[in-house]
Amino acid sequence: MPSGTPEPAPSPHPLVTSFTRWLMHTGTPAEPAGPFEGEPPGPAAHAHTEPWWKVMCLTGVDYFSTLGYQPGIAALAAGAVAPLATLVLVLVTLLGALPMYRRVAVESPHGDGSISMLERLLTYWPSKLLVLILIGFVATGFIITITLSGADAAAHLVENPLLRDVLEGRQVGVTLLLLALLAAVFLKGFKEAIGIAVVLVGAYLTLSLVVVVKGFTLIAAQPELLTGWRAALSEGFTSPMSLIGASLLVFPKLALGLSGFETGVLVMPLVKGAPGDTEANPRGRIRNAQKLLTTAALIMSLLLVASSLVTTLLIPRHEFWAETTVTRDVNTTDLQAGRAVVNVPLDSQSRPRDIYALTLPPGRTGAYTFPAETVGGPVQLAVRVTPQGPTTQVTVDTPSGQANGRALAFVAHRDLGEAFGTAYDVSTILILWFAGASAMAGLLNIVPRFLPRYGMAPEWTRAHRPLVLLYTLIAVIVTVGFKANVDAQAAAYATGVLAMMTSAAVAVALVSWRRRRRAETWVFGAISAIFVYTSAVTILSDPKGLYLSLLFIAMVLTVGISSRVLRSFELRVSCVELDDSARAVLAAIPYRPLRFVSHHPGRTTLEEYSKQETRVRQMVHLPEDEPFLFLEIEIDDASEFTDVVEVTGRTVGPYHILKARGSAVPNTIAALLLHLRGAGAPPQVYMRWTEENPVQLLGKFLVGGRGDVPPLTREILRRAEPVRDRRPIVHVGG
Fold first, then answer.
1. Beta bridge partners of 319
2. For residues 134 and 244, what is the distance between their CA atoms, to the nearest angstrom?
3. Which of 18, 454, 690, 727, CA to CA, is 20 to 30 A from 508?
4. C-alpha distances in Å from residue 137, one per residue of 41, 142, 196, 492, 500
5. φ and ψ at residue 716, rounded to 5 degrees
6. Is 49:273 a contact under the CB 8 Å cutoff?
7. 72, 400 in Cβ contact below 8 A?
């Protein structure tokens, strides 16, 4: 075997090779050779775009699908106040979120969303750290979108009269099956998403409008429903101000109805612009994206208020309640005497607002059903009484209401017939399932949009299939943890959504402040305060969403930092650019191989260069008669992973100097040497050993781009060029 040629690795089994090729397939052409070897990559292909109203349907499968569960969650959280609380949500949407995201569309028209706005407001490592934290919150929102949408789609299947007997009690299994189908679609390849979304959104909005119109006709035919609703409000609240206060307090629990705005700006590259649009100034795309956001917000606002009013007035209160269970030990003597009482939560397992005091029948044991007349209507309680000597264990289960997580579907089945109700169920299931697809697509875009630029994504994240498997595994764990319960996931979902919207509000306010637009700063500052308050209330009322977000943030930081450390020894240079002065300096040294002497860029006098020449010739054994060039490296931003190395040249006395700017000294030296090698002997560089602690030097390299330059340069060259005879040489002495 020729010298310098590495030994070939043993060939893997053909099945392993085939599976690996399938798993790591990216669906894109292979990357071109590095800029020091081949031609620079050509211009990017023009992205496929669609009219704004079609792209609105793609974002709408997430945004509009919340109609499947939002009215039920609103009724569960606010009771009779739900329509007014929903009106507050609509006002925040139209007067706060909409103008805010219209500004985000202007500031970030290339699909980076509000995260890139905050990224630009900071520099160096704080910018990267902030983005990683925000990605953790974004991942929370998207993962919970997948699991919550799947759980609600499963609820519609389980509660369908045609399937109830077969699927009852199998909510978790049905949800996991839907997640598996979603993963299978993405593993095969997800195409024509916009066309499918247009059909699903059109059908779902049409059927939902039919249900809402039917609801209003029933309310008009039964004026006592409005009278009873007003009486309930008057009985619970003594003044209009107390009613408004209650609506504001409940608003954070309804914040999941604000989802979809961030997705709307993330898909902006898909929006068709005007003929005169440029990459730097896509005015037509911005204008059409703003039409998308405004139209979606108006449609959703109208349907949210209408559906909340219809479901609150037409559906009995107990039908909204979630499934609960409670186990208590009671005194056996009290049970025998008929004095044993168990407080049963009716509407929520963790934070019940309605509680039924169940007085146990005297001396009755075993399992039986107890008909309870509750504040929300008649409910059949499943009771199990197990004597245990002086104490008796009592377990009481309440069934989930038929409108829980599917309020509009309940009205469709009851008031428009089982055939229409089943059609509505199918439409709802498909759009909820497709909302999970929209979230999965968003997750698959997050990693390549930010993390690879930071060097914080492993190589396998370039392929989408490993990411699909990873995200599906996480979604399965979350689904099992929440037991596929829609209500239990609402707070976690709201936490992710509100974190994205709060960051967008703060970003827009800070941009306005930097540009000295006082009125806009006050307006967007007030909007930011609303979202900060809403986020704080949501987190304090149910911290599970925050815990989940912190877990995602920890995962992102762990993977990102470890990947950055491992990939720091890559070349990390997109291209090397030599200006005319650098080319003139190289032309003045016609001898090959080129020999470079590393020199500190701050010492630029003739005396300093002369001293450095003497040291190098003595310590590194550079021959006296060999010509050389001084090489100086300046660091731009060490937090950047890849950079364009810009090289200039100058002459000081008899010395020729090349000065290069890059993100890390060893990587910049290695990239320049590789760029300058020709067909003959590769370039050589002469350096001195560093006297500092090796551990501290490694930290300086990872954080500041400096460190122990000689061995780091050698290692980067070794990884970039496996053929030793073609590899530039590093000389070290002193």
1. none
2. 33
3. 454
4. 34, 9, 28, 10, 7
5. -65, -40
6. yes
7. no
Question: Exposed (0-12), middle (13-18) or buried (19+): which is 46, by Cβ within 10 Å?
Answer: exposed
Count of CB atoms situated within 10 Å of the CB of 673 = 27
C-alpha–C-alpha distance, residues 157 and 346, integer Å: 23
Report the distance separating Cα 258 and Cα 94, nearest Å. 10
The mean pLDDT value for 208-232 works out to 91
Give the integer Cα–Cα distance in Å for 693 and 679. 39
Distances (CA, A) of 517 to 10, 62, 121, 523: 65, 34, 16, 10
Rounded Cα–Cα distance for residues 24 and 466 (Å): 7
Give the model's pLDDT for residue 47.
53
Whether 182 and 436 have beta carbons less than 8 Å apart is answered as: yes
Amino acid at 319: E
Residues with Cβ within 8 Å of residue 52, at least 6 apart in sequence: 271, 272, 288, 289, 291, 292
**Which residue carries 């909409």 as its tokens?**
98
For the chain, the C-alpha Rg in angstroms (whole number) is 32
User: Is the peptide bond between 710 and the residue preceding it cis, with omega within 30 degrees of 0?
Assistant: no
pLDDT tens column, 593-645:
888 888 888 777 888 888 888 887 777 777 777 788 889 998 888 888 888 88
Each residue of 4-40: b (16+ CB within 10 Å) or e? eeeeeeeeeeeeeeeeeeeeeeeeeeeeeebbbeeee
The CA distance from 286 to 277, in Å, is 10
Q: CB atoms < 10 A from the CB of 275, how many? A: 5
Q: How far apart are CA 505 and CA 509, in angstroms?
A: 6
For the chain, how many residues are written?
734
Task: Tell me how far apart the alpha carbons of residues 608 and 611 are, in angstroms, rounded to a whole number.
Answer: 5
What is the residue-wise DSSP string for 71-97? HHHHHHHHGGGHHHHHHHHHHHIIIII
Q: Which candidate, 467, 520, 416, places its Cα nearest to that of 186?
A: 467
Interacting residues of 156 by C-beta distance below 8 A, sequence separation 6+: 68, 405, 406, 409, 425, 428, 429, 432
Angstrom distance (rounded) from CA 406 to CA 347: 15
d(CA 594, CA 728): 10
| pLDDT tens digits, 80-92 | 888 888 888 888 8
